[in-house]
Amino acid sequence: MQYGLVAADVNADGSVNSTDYALMKRYILGIIDRFPAEDASTPTLAPPTNTPVLTPEPTEPPGPYPTPNQPGDNDISCKKGNEFYFVFNAYNATESAIYKYKVNYNPNELEVVDLCSETFDRETQAGKVQDTSITIDKFSANTGEIVFSTPIYISEGKKWTGSVNSIKFKSNITGHSNINYSVEIVPIEDKGDPPTSDEPFNKEIEIKLESFLVGGQNFHVFSKESNKIKMFKTRIRPKITLVFYENVCSVDVIGNAGERHYYESFISKDRVDVLVLTEFMLIAPENQGLGLDVIIHNNSEKHINVLVDDKIDRAVIMDRNGNPIESANSIENVTITRKEY
After folding, report:
1. Model's pTM, two decimal places?
2. How many domains is the chain built from?
3. What does the DSSP assignment read for 56-106?
4. Are 148 and 212 members of one domain?
5. Is 135 among the domain residues?
Protein backbone atom coordinates (compact mmCIF):
# COMPACT_ATOMS: atom_id res chain seq x y z
CA MET A 1 0.00 0.00 0.00
CA GLN A 2 2.92 2.33 0.70
CA TYR A 3 4.09 2.14 -2.90
CA GLY A 4 0.53 2.50 -4.22
CA LEU A 5 -0.12 5.72 -2.30
CA VAL A 6 3.19 7.26 -3.36
CA ALA A 7 2.58 6.35 -7.01
CA ALA A 8 -0.98 7.74 -6.95
CA ASP A 9 0.02 11.07 -5.37
CA VAL A 10 1.15 12.51 -8.72
CA ASN A 11 1.17 16.14 -7.57
CA ALA A 12 3.15 15.38 -4.37
CA ASP A 13 0.78 17.21 -2.03
CA GLY A 14 0.66 14.35 0.48
CA SER A 15 -2.84 13.11 -0.39
CA VAL A 16 -4.57 11.15 -3.15
CA ASN A 17 -7.68 12.89 -4.43
CA SER A 18 -9.55 14.10 -7.51
CA THR A 19 -6.69 16.41 -8.47
CA ASP A 20 -4.39 13.41 -8.89
CA TYR A 21 -7.09 11.67 -10.94
CA ALA A 22 -7.42 14.67 -13.27
CA LEU A 23 -3.64 14.85 -13.76
CA MET A 24 -3.48 11.14 -14.57
CA LYS A 25 -6.18 11.58 -17.22
CA ARG A 26 -4.24 14.50 -18.73
CA TYR A 27 -1.14 12.29 -18.88
CA ILE A 28 -3.04 9.46 -20.57
CA LEU A 29 -4.46 11.83 -23.18
CA GLY A 30 -1.00 13.14 -23.93
CA ILE A 31 -1.71 16.68 -22.72
CA ILE A 32 1.16 16.55 -20.22
CA ASP A 33 4.31 14.45 -20.39
CA ARG A 34 5.27 14.50 -16.71
CA PHE A 35 3.65 14.91 -13.30
CA PRO A 36 4.30 17.68 -10.77
CA ALA A 37 5.64 15.04 -8.38
CA GLU A 38 8.50 14.42 -10.78
CA ASP A 39 9.72 17.95 -10.09
CA ALA A 40 9.15 17.74 -6.32
CA SER A 41 12.09 17.60 -3.94
CA THR A 42 10.68 14.59 -2.06
CA PRO A 43 12.33 11.42 -3.39
CA THR A 44 10.01 8.81 -4.85
CA LEU A 45 10.09 5.15 -3.95
CA ALA A 46 10.81 2.48 -6.50
CA PRO A 47 7.65 0.80 -7.80
CA PRO A 48 6.84 -2.79 -6.85
CA THR A 49 8.17 -5.45 -9.19
CA ASN A 50 5.43 -8.08 -8.93
CA THR A 51 3.61 -6.71 -12.02
CA PRO A 52 6.13 -6.64 -14.88
CA VAL A 53 5.66 -4.47 -17.94
CA LEU A 54 6.57 -6.33 -21.11
CA THR A 55 7.37 -4.16 -24.10
CA PRO A 56 7.70 -5.82 -27.51
CA GLU A 57 10.95 -4.83 -29.18
CA PRO A 58 11.44 -4.82 -32.96
CA THR A 59 13.64 -7.58 -34.35
CA GLU A 60 15.41 -4.98 -36.55
CA PRO A 61 16.63 -1.44 -35.77
CA PRO A 62 13.68 0.91 -35.21
CA GLY A 63 12.23 2.38 -38.37
CA PRO A 64 8.70 3.32 -39.34
CA TYR A 65 5.84 1.17 -38.10
CA PRO A 66 6.05 -2.57 -38.90
CA THR A 67 5.15 -3.42 -42.46
CA PRO A 68 1.34 -3.87 -42.68
CA ASN A 69 0.30 -7.43 -41.84
CA GLN A 70 3.87 -8.53 -41.15
CA PRO A 71 3.66 -10.91 -38.16
CA GLY A 72 5.69 -10.19 -35.06
CA ASP A 73 6.13 -12.96 -32.49
CA ASN A 74 6.85 -12.08 -28.87
CA ASP A 75 7.84 -14.84 -26.48
CA ILE A 76 6.38 -14.28 -23.02
CA SER A 77 7.72 -15.97 -19.89
CA CYS A 78 4.70 -16.69 -17.67
CA LYS A 79 3.85 -17.79 -14.18
CA LYS A 80 0.37 -19.14 -13.59
CA GLY A 81 -1.93 -16.57 -11.98
CA ASN A 82 0.36 -13.60 -12.64
CA GLU A 83 -0.87 -10.52 -14.51
CA PHE A 84 1.27 -8.41 -16.83
CA TYR A 85 1.00 -5.51 -19.25
CA PHE A 86 1.85 -5.95 -22.91
CA VAL A 87 2.77 -2.52 -24.32
CA PHE A 88 2.34 -1.64 -27.99
CA ASN A 89 4.82 1.03 -29.06
CA ALA A 90 5.32 3.14 -32.14
CA TYR A 91 8.85 3.71 -33.44
CA ASN A 92 9.76 6.76 -35.56
CA ALA A 93 6.30 7.05 -37.09
CA THR A 94 6.20 9.74 -39.80
CA GLU A 95 2.71 9.43 -41.28
CA SER A 96 -0.57 10.79 -39.94
CA ALA A 97 -2.95 7.86 -40.28
CA ILE A 98 -5.17 5.34 -38.52
CA TYR A 99 -2.94 2.65 -37.03
CA LYS A 100 -4.77 -0.66 -36.70
CA TYR A 101 -3.19 -3.33 -34.49
CA LYS A 102 -4.15 -6.98 -35.01
CA VAL A 103 -3.24 -9.16 -32.06
CA ASN A 104 -3.38 -12.95 -31.62
CA TYR A 105 -2.68 -15.01 -28.50
CA ASN A 106 -3.43 -18.50 -27.18
CA PRO A 107 -6.66 -18.21 -25.12
CA ASN A 108 -5.86 -21.48 -23.33
CA GLU A 109 -2.62 -19.98 -22.00
CA LEU A 110 -3.51 -16.30 -21.58
CA GLU A 111 -6.67 -14.35 -20.80
CA VAL A 112 -7.36 -10.65 -21.23
CA VAL A 113 -7.97 -8.64 -18.05
CA ASP A 114 -8.13 -5.15 -19.61
CA LEU A 115 -8.09 -4.27 -23.31
CA CYS A 116 -6.86 -0.73 -22.60
CA SER A 117 -5.01 -0.14 -19.36
CA GLU A 118 -4.49 3.51 -20.36
CA THR A 119 -7.76 4.32 -18.54
CA PHE A 120 -9.01 3.70 -15.01
CA ASP A 121 -12.05 1.70 -16.15
CA ARG A 122 -11.56 -1.93 -17.15
CA GLU A 123 -12.26 -2.53 -20.84
CA THR A 124 -13.49 -6.03 -21.69
CA GLN A 125 -15.49 -5.62 -24.89
CA ALA A 126 -15.32 -4.00 -28.30
CA GLY A 127 -16.17 -0.32 -28.69
CA LYS A 128 -14.76 3.19 -28.27
CA VAL A 129 -12.55 3.57 -25.19
CA GLN A 130 -13.75 6.63 -23.32
CA ASP A 131 -11.27 9.46 -22.71
CA THR A 132 -8.91 8.12 -25.40
CA SER A 133 -8.68 8.00 -29.19
CA ILE A 134 -8.52 4.18 -29.10
CA THR A 135 -11.27 1.97 -30.52
CA ILE A 136 -11.46 -1.77 -29.82
CA ASP A 137 -12.65 -2.94 -33.23
CA LYS A 138 -12.83 -6.65 -32.38
CA PHE A 139 -12.32 -8.88 -29.36
CA SER A 140 -12.84 -12.63 -29.10
CA ALA A 141 -11.82 -14.31 -25.86
CA ASN A 142 -12.60 -17.71 -27.40
CA THR A 143 -10.24 -17.39 -30.38
CA GLY A 144 -7.70 -15.04 -28.83
CA GLU A 145 -8.17 -12.23 -31.34
CA ILE A 146 -7.94 -8.50 -30.66
CA VAL A 147 -8.09 -5.64 -33.13
CA PHE A 148 -7.73 -2.05 -31.96
CA SER A 149 -7.07 1.19 -33.82
CA THR A 150 -6.15 4.77 -33.08
CA PRO A 151 -5.43 7.87 -35.15
CA ILE A 152 -1.93 9.27 -34.77
CA TYR A 153 -1.24 12.78 -36.03
CA ILE A 154 2.31 13.78 -36.88
CA SER A 155 3.49 17.14 -38.19
CA GLU A 156 5.10 17.14 -41.61
CA GLY A 157 8.81 16.40 -41.39
CA LYS A 158 8.55 15.11 -37.82
CA LYS A 159 8.85 11.64 -36.27
CA TRP A 160 7.06 10.23 -33.25
CA THR A 161 7.93 7.36 -30.93
CA GLY A 162 5.80 6.36 -27.96
CA SER A 163 3.29 4.02 -26.36
CA VAL A 164 0.04 3.49 -28.30
CA ASN A 165 -1.81 1.12 -25.96
CA SER A 166 -1.18 -1.52 -23.32
CA ILE A 167 -3.27 -4.64 -22.73
CA LYS A 168 -3.33 -6.40 -19.39
CA PHE A 169 -3.16 -10.19 -19.52
CA LYS A 170 -3.36 -12.97 -16.93
CA SER A 171 -1.36 -16.16 -17.36
CA ASN A 172 -3.10 -19.53 -17.03
CA ILE A 173 0.17 -21.48 -17.31
CA THR A 174 3.71 -21.53 -16.00
CA GLY A 175 6.12 -21.54 -18.90
CA HIS A 176 6.18 -19.70 -22.20
CA SER A 177 3.43 -18.28 -24.38
CA ASN A 178 3.34 -16.13 -27.50
CA ILE A 179 1.67 -12.88 -28.49
CA ASN A 180 1.68 -12.07 -32.18
CA TYR A 181 0.71 -8.71 -33.64
CA SER A 182 0.80 -6.76 -36.87
CA VAL A 183 0.03 -3.17 -37.80
CA GLU A 184 -2.00 -1.87 -40.72
CA ILE A 185 -1.71 1.79 -41.70
CA VAL A 186 -5.00 3.23 -42.95
CA PRO A 187 -5.01 6.75 -44.45
CA ILE A 188 -7.19 9.28 -42.66
CA GLU A 189 -10.08 10.33 -44.84
CA ASP A 190 -9.80 13.91 -46.04
CA LYS A 191 -12.59 15.85 -44.40
CA GLY A 192 -12.40 18.43 -47.18
CA ASP A 193 -12.91 22.11 -46.65
CA PRO A 194 -14.50 23.11 -43.35
CA PRO A 195 -18.28 23.47 -43.65
CA THR A 196 -19.65 26.89 -44.44
CA SER A 197 -22.80 28.04 -42.74
CA ASP A 198 -24.98 31.11 -42.39
CA GLU A 199 -25.62 30.03 -38.81
CA PRO A 200 -24.70 32.88 -36.43
CA PHE A 201 -21.78 32.51 -34.06
CA ASN A 202 -23.14 30.72 -30.99
CA LYS A 203 -20.48 30.90 -28.29
CA GLU A 204 -20.11 27.48 -26.63
CA ILE A 205 -16.73 28.12 -25.01
CA GLU A 206 -15.30 31.50 -23.98
CA ILE A 207 -11.67 32.10 -23.05
CA LYS A 208 -11.12 35.64 -21.79
CA LEU A 209 -8.09 37.50 -20.41
CA GLU A 210 -8.29 41.03 -19.00
CA SER A 211 -5.84 43.47 -17.47
CA PHE A 212 -4.11 42.44 -14.26
CA LEU A 213 -5.30 45.78 -12.85
CA VAL A 214 -9.02 44.95 -13.03
CA GLY A 215 -10.79 44.20 -9.75
CA GLY A 216 -11.11 40.50 -8.99
CA GLN A 217 -10.13 37.70 -11.38
CA ASN A 218 -8.78 38.64 -14.80
CA PHE A 219 -8.89 35.22 -16.53
CA HIS A 220 -11.74 32.81 -17.11
CA VAL A 221 -12.72 29.91 -19.34
CA PHE A 222 -16.45 29.18 -19.54
CA SER A 223 -18.42 26.32 -21.14
CA LYS A 224 -21.98 27.37 -21.85
CA GLU A 225 -23.84 24.07 -22.24
CA SER A 226 -22.54 22.57 -18.98
CA ASN A 227 -22.39 25.97 -17.23
CA LYS A 228 -18.86 25.33 -15.96
CA ILE A 229 -16.20 27.96 -15.37
CA LYS A 230 -12.62 28.27 -14.10
CA MET A 231 -11.26 31.69 -13.17
CA PHE A 232 -8.22 33.14 -11.43
CA LYS A 233 -5.91 36.15 -11.18
CA THR A 234 -2.80 36.04 -13.34
CA ARG A 235 -0.02 38.23 -14.69
CA ILE A 236 1.49 35.52 -16.90
CA ARG A 237 0.28 33.64 -20.02
CA PRO A 238 -2.18 30.88 -19.13
CA LYS A 239 -1.92 27.71 -21.23
CA ILE A 240 -5.36 26.31 -22.12
CA THR A 241 -5.75 22.86 -23.70
CA LEU A 242 -9.11 21.86 -25.16
CA VAL A 243 -9.47 18.12 -25.88
CA PHE A 244 -12.58 17.09 -27.81
CA TYR A 245 -13.79 13.48 -27.89
CA GLU A 246 -17.31 12.37 -28.80
CA ASN A 247 -19.65 14.88 -27.08
CA VAL A 248 -17.18 15.93 -24.39
CA CYS A 249 -14.63 18.70 -24.16
CA SER A 250 -12.02 18.49 -21.42
CA VAL A 251 -10.53 21.83 -20.40
CA ASP A 252 -7.08 21.86 -18.82
CA VAL A 253 -5.52 25.18 -17.78
CA ILE A 254 -2.04 25.87 -16.43
CA GLY A 255 -1.93 29.18 -14.57
CA ASN A 256 0.35 30.88 -12.07
CA ALA A 257 3.30 28.85 -10.79
CA GLY A 258 2.14 25.80 -12.74
CA GLU A 259 -1.20 25.62 -10.90
CA ARG A 260 -3.63 23.40 -12.83
CA HIS A 261 -7.37 23.84 -13.33
CA TYR A 262 -9.46 21.13 -14.99
CA TYR A 263 -13.05 20.30 -15.87
CA GLU A 264 -15.07 18.41 -18.46
CA SER A 265 -18.11 19.79 -20.29
CA PHE A 266 -20.82 18.27 -22.47
CA ILE A 267 -21.16 19.64 -26.01
CA SER A 268 -23.97 18.34 -28.20
CA LYS A 269 -23.54 20.46 -31.32
CA ASP A 270 -21.54 19.32 -34.35
CA ARG A 271 -20.01 22.78 -34.71
CA VAL A 272 -18.35 24.17 -31.60
CA ASP A 273 -17.95 27.95 -31.52
CA VAL A 274 -15.02 29.10 -29.35
CA LEU A 275 -14.38 32.76 -28.49
CA VAL A 276 -10.82 33.77 -27.56
CA LEU A 277 -10.85 37.31 -26.19
CA THR A 278 -8.15 39.62 -24.82
CA GLU A 279 -9.05 42.95 -23.21
CA PHE A 280 -6.00 44.74 -21.82
CA MET A 281 -3.41 47.36 -22.78
CA LEU A 282 0.31 46.65 -22.79
CA ILE A 283 1.19 50.12 -21.52
CA ALA A 284 0.76 48.91 -17.92
CA PRO A 285 3.91 47.11 -16.66
CA GLU A 286 1.70 44.56 -14.85
CA ASN A 287 0.33 43.42 -18.24
CA GLN A 288 3.64 42.89 -20.02
CA GLY A 289 3.65 39.13 -19.40
CA LEU A 290 -0.01 38.53 -20.30
CA GLY A 291 -1.17 36.49 -23.28
CA LEU A 292 -3.06 33.31 -24.18
CA ASP A 293 -1.76 29.98 -25.49
CA VAL A 294 -4.68 27.83 -26.63
CA ILE A 295 -4.06 24.23 -27.76
CA ILE A 296 -6.81 22.35 -29.61
CA HIS A 297 -6.70 18.55 -29.61
CA ASN A 298 -9.72 17.30 -31.58
CA ASN A 299 -10.40 13.55 -31.44
CA SER A 300 -14.07 14.02 -32.36
CA GLU A 301 -15.99 14.49 -35.60
CA LYS A 302 -16.92 18.03 -34.58
CA HIS A 303 -15.85 21.15 -36.42
CA ILE A 304 -14.16 23.67 -34.13
CA ASN A 305 -14.88 27.27 -35.15
CA VAL A 306 -12.66 29.80 -33.34
CA LEU A 307 -13.24 33.54 -33.27
CA VAL A 308 -10.18 35.44 -32.02
CA ASP A 309 -10.81 38.97 -30.72
CA ASP A 310 -7.26 40.06 -29.93
CA LYS A 311 -6.40 43.63 -30.88
CA ILE A 312 -2.97 43.48 -29.18
CA ASP A 313 -1.94 40.21 -30.89
CA ARG A 314 -1.25 38.25 -27.69
CA ALA A 315 -3.36 35.10 -28.37
CA VAL A 316 -1.82 32.04 -30.07
CA ILE A 317 -3.94 29.07 -31.25
CA MET A 318 -2.05 25.79 -31.76
CA ASP A 319 -2.70 22.18 -32.76
CA ARG A 320 -1.90 19.21 -30.51
CA ASN A 321 1.74 19.27 -31.61
CA GLY A 322 2.20 22.92 -30.73
CA ASN A 323 2.09 24.19 -34.31
CA PRO A 324 0.42 27.62 -34.64
CA ILE A 325 -2.87 27.69 -36.57
CA GLU A 326 -3.35 30.86 -38.57
CA SER A 327 -6.65 30.23 -40.40
CA ALA A 328 -7.40 26.50 -40.65
CA ASN A 329 -6.09 23.06 -39.67
CA SER A 330 -7.51 19.96 -41.36
CA ILE A 331 -6.11 17.49 -38.82
CA GLU A 332 -7.85 19.17 -35.88
CA ASN A 333 -10.79 20.21 -38.14
CA VAL A 334 -10.43 23.83 -37.01
CA THR A 335 -11.12 27.15 -38.69
CA ILE A 336 -10.04 30.48 -37.21
CA THR A 337 -11.49 33.92 -37.84
CA ARG A 338 -9.60 36.90 -36.46
CA LYS A 339 -11.50 40.09 -35.77
CA GLU A 340 -9.97 42.99 -37.63
CA TYR A 341 -9.35 46.42 -36.11
Report:
1. 0.47
2. 3
3. ---SSS--SSPPTT--EEEEEEE-TT-EEEEEEEEEEE---EEEEEEEEE-
4. no
5. yes
